[in-house]
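Comment thread on ticket #2218

A.B. wrote:
> Attaching the input chain for the structure job we discussed in standup.
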Amino acid sequence: MSRGRGPLSRKLIALAGALVLAAGVVAGCRPGAGGQVVFHAEGQPESLADWHLFDMSGGRMAPNARVLPYDLNTPLFTDYAHKLRTVWMPEGSTARYDANEAFDFPVGTIISKTFYYPRLEGEARDSQRVLRSQGDEGALPGGALDLDRVRLVETRLLVRREAGWVALPYVWNDAQTGARLMRAGELVSLTLVGADGAEEEAAYQVPDQNQCAGCHGSDLATRELHPIGPKARHLNRDHAYLQADGSTLTANQLARWQAVGYLAGAPVAAAVPRVADWQDRAASVDARARAYLDINCSHCHSASGPGNTSGLWLASDVAEPLRLGRCKLPIAAGHGTGNRRYDIVPGKPDESILTYRMVSNDPGVMMPELGRSVTHAEGVELIRAWIAGQHGECGDTG
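C.D. wrote:
> Ran it. Output below, let me know if you need it in another format.
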């Protein structure tokens, strides 16, 4: 039987991996060819194109030079929208690693998230009928999108300026040729069509700037905006990066960020926290459910977040059963309880407030309060299974 590698051996392996990644930096950080990114230190540019984040030629939307695509282990649910996420930092600027919170990004950072849906075959480019799926239809290697196969809805930017983060929502036109700044948000009517042909109407809401602050202002003490997704536990996964010769290089995202100079201070991936992929059936129901609640709920439901008065804290590292809702009486739910007594009743999802609010589309009841107009049926199914697998009786929480 082989013996475990010592600390020096592990460091040498990590260094070798970093050198391999660094060898592909020039190519792997540059799928697009539409010019250099422009950082606007002030003002609110009216067009997404003013930032030069993407190349829109050749029937593709591809990240420009040094715009790095990334994914999350478990993404936030937004009416079944697919998302292309990217990050860009000025030359010589580096984010500082944090094991629990969003990284400390330098001034000049631009984080983008483009929301899109796969097109239905035969539908016109401006059709509101789109495919409801959770696959990768329309996605190309290296973070590019096939514009003949996707319907772009919006691109949100988080921009790190001297005074802090600024949120800017851009909405794509029907012709899919450009996106304009919509400070007041926008309501986009869509018809989500499942693989079985079933249809569901969605009133997709592009948030206004105040609503952006409602989610990203995750610290009540400071009221400052912060990124939600770019945290170690969400980023610790592999990603396929496009190389200059058209091949792909699969690498851990945190290692890649370090190799291209976008991250400093991160330990090797094995020492970094990681949440599960909520769709990974090889992972336990508990791990999948905790990851789902973490990304969808914990930016509000935490000790410092806007939902702290509820007493329900849903980050993946919370261990106290009562904080997670087990046999916890609601504090500020109002009529959102649906006449249910506890946030979670072990073994009884139908008697739990948590699932009731996840199913509801009533604006006064539904959770999350923002970001969806339809119920995430698969997410609800997962949380129901998680609650159904819990044991005990309320009144006997030991």
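A.B. wrote:
> Thanks. Noting for the ticket: Residues 120 and 130 are 6 Å apart (CA to CA).
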